[in-house]
Amino acid sequence: MKRIWIMVFVSLLVIFVLLDLLIVSGHVHIEFPWSHIAGFFSLFGFIGCLAIIGLAKLLGHYWLQRKEDYYNKNNGDE
After folding, report:
1. Number of separate domains in the chain
2. Residue 20 contacts residue 38 (beta carbons within 8 Å)
3. Cα 74 vs. chain centroid, distance in angstroms?
């Protein structure tokens, strides 16, 4: 099942890159050197999503998660 999802997302990325090559966008007022690279913004968005997911996992693992005995610790106060 995981392989199917990967294939779907890769094929969508290829379709978007091909559409970027075939469809000429309108007049752009602001141009950057990387705006002429085919598929740059599709790849940039994909890498950005992966970075957000990775950052959220790291944040959840190191900041939000607690050990199983977090509330049952014997501090000697009882």
Report:
1. 1
2. yes
3. 41
In a domain, 48, yes or no: yes
- What is the percent of the chain with per-residue pLDDT over 70, rounded to a whole number? 85
Q: Quote the domain boundaries for residue 59.
A: 37-65
Please, what sign has the CA dihedral across residues 58, 63, 64, 67?
positive
| Residue 30 belongs to a domain | no
Distance CA 60, CA 8 (A): 28
| pLDDT 10s digits, 30-66 | 678 877 777 788 788 889 998 999 999 999 988 888 7
Instruction: Quote the mean pLDDT of the chain.
Output: 81
Rounded to whole angstroms, the Cα distance separating 35 from 66 reads 44
One-letter identity of residue 17: V
42 by Cβ neighbours in 10 Å (0-12 / 13-18 / 19+) ranks as: middle
